[in-house]
Amino acid sequence: MTNPQPEHWGSCLCGSLTYRIHQPLSDFGYCHCRSCRKASGSAHGANAGVARAAFELSDPQHTLREFESSAGKLRAFCSNCGSPLYAYLAANPEIIRIRLGSLDSPLNEAPRAHTFVSDKAGWDHIGLDIPQFETWAPRHVLEQTGSRQP
C-alpha cells in the first residue's frame, strides 16, 4: 500500500509516462562510465535507488519499453520520446534506479561522488568540490542502492 502523498514524482519528455515515488530516494552520485553516458546522452548519469514497491507508474498509452544494455541490466524508457526513466538488475528487480533527470519534483540533496572518472568524456571538466573515484566509490562515501557496486 502506498502513501497518499508522494515523496517525488516525474515523467518522460512527452508526458506519456508519469510516476510517483512513495519513499525517500537513496544517495546519488554522478557516474561517468561509458554505459551511463550513452544512456543519458550527457556527460554522466545521475541515478538514485528506490524500492519498486514504492514506485507507482502510470502508462495509459503503453509506451514503456525495456532494453537489456548489458547482461542482466535493464533500462526502462518511453518508446514515444526516448526519455530514460529507470534501470534495474534482473538479479535484484525489487530495487530500481531512477534517472534523476526525469524528476519533476524538487530534489535538494547533493551528489556524494563522481564515479568511473577513468571513463569520463574528454570534454567534461569536473570541479573539485565532490570526491572523484576511478571506478566505484567506497560505500562509506556513496552507497549506490540497486547497482552492481561491490
Mean pLDDT: 93
Number of domains: 1
Helix content percent band: under 10%
**Order of strands side by side in the largest beta sheet?**
6-7-8-9-4-3-10
**Top-tier CATH class:** Mainly Beta
Structural class: mainly beta
Count of separate DSSP helical elements: 1
Q: Oligomeric state of the chains?
A: single chain
| Helix and strand pattern | EEEHEEEEEEE
Low-confidence stretches: none
- CATH fold topology: Metal Binding Protein, Guanine Nucleotide Exchange Factor, Chain A
Major sheet attributes? 7 strands, mixed
From the structure above, extract its key features.
150 residues; mainly beta; Metal Binding Protein, Guanine Nucleotide Exchange Factor, Chain A; seven-stranded mixed sheet; three-stranded antiparallel sheet; 1 helix; 5% helix; globular
Explain this structure to me?
The protein has one helix at residues 34-40; strands at 8-11, 18-21, 29-31, 45-51, 55-58, 64-70, 73-78, 84-89, 92-99, 114-115. By secondary structure, the protein is mainly beta. The chain has a 7-stranded mixed beta sheet. A 3-stranded antiparallel beta sheet has the order 1-2-5, with no helix packed on it. The longest helix is centred in the N-terminal third of the chain and has 7 residues, at 34-40. It is globular, with a radius of gyration of 15 Å. The mean pLDDT is 93.
